[in-house]
Design a protein that fits this description.
Strand content: 5-15%
Strand order of the largest sheet: 1-3-2
Largest sheet: 3 strands, antiparallel
Radius of gyration: 20 Å
CATH superfamily: Aspartate Aminotransferase, domain 1
CATH architecture: Alpha-Beta Complex
Number of helices: 5
Order of helices and strands: HHEHEEHH
CATH topology: Aspartate Aminotransferase, domain 1
CATH class: Alpha Beta
Distance between the termini: 51 Å
Structural class: mainly alpha
């Protein structure tokens, strides 16, 4: 392409068109700063709501990312991640198992075509899932809080 200005193979026109459209949307939204602020707002609403229903984050507030947030799994014996995952999925939300930590956890993303209203709905869905499973306390086990302290130190 650099020498002839032509694609070597059939050009991926749909990919190029989608990329151009994505750049336009990004510019209309206000660029990197505005998008980053939207993601941070999403994170803040998600974290506040999840904490309100008893969940704890893996990291202290100063370390939280606006991209994805890790929450500890509740210590309540009625909590089953597989069932929680399915209940969230049935409500239209896909969460991620937390395989990167020494304690049981899961992750929720804050990016994409979402806003704070969607994040409030995610929290509502999580509360519904807990109630459906009969989980009365979403607090993590003590070793989870020890892990958070270790990571923050």
């Amino acid at each position: 392409m650099e020498t002839s200005g032509q694609w070597r193979y059939t050009p991926p026109t749909h990919v190029v068109a989608a990329f151009i459209e994505a750049l336009k949307v990004h510019e209309v939204e206000g660029g990197v700063a505005a998008r980053g602020q939207r993601y941070a707002n999403n994170r803040d609403v998600l974290v506040a709501g999840m904490r309100d229903i008893g969940f704890e984050t893996l990291l202290d507030a100063s370390w939280l990312s606006p991209i994805i947030v890790t929450f500890f799994s509740p210590a309540d014996p009625k909590f089953d991640f597989g069932q929680f995952y399915e209940l969230m999925k049935n409500q239209g939300y896909i969460i991620y198992p937390g395989k990167l930590t020494a304690v049981n956890s899961f992750r929720i993303g804050c990016i994409g075509r979402m806003d704070t209203a969607v994040m409030e709905d995610v929290v509502t869905a999580a509360g519904f899932a807990l109630a459906t499973m009969g989980v009365v306390d979403a607090a993590p086990p003590p070793d989870a809080l020890t892990e958070r302290q270790r990571l923050s130190g």
